[in-house]
Design goal:
0% strand; single chain; 85 residues; mainly alpha
Length: 85
Amino acid sequence: MSIGKIVMIVLYAVLAGLAITQGETSAGIWALRLLWILAVVHAIETAVFFKLCKTAEGSLGGNLLSVFLFGVLHVKELKEAQGKN
């Protein structure tokens, strides 16, 4: 797993922790907003790169989930594996 993906997981964990523990405070509200924004952006990326995920090695579901979680970080790995830059 790349450093970028690890950073994304840590970011999600921090935002989720703030959203859960800070609830109605500004920090909690903004953390939840950022999580929603990231979810929407990554959902769009998943739709945009569906064809790439379909032609890539590995399971379609696994690739779609990875694009949803990591966005262009995973897309870059898929393109490198296929020899596309």
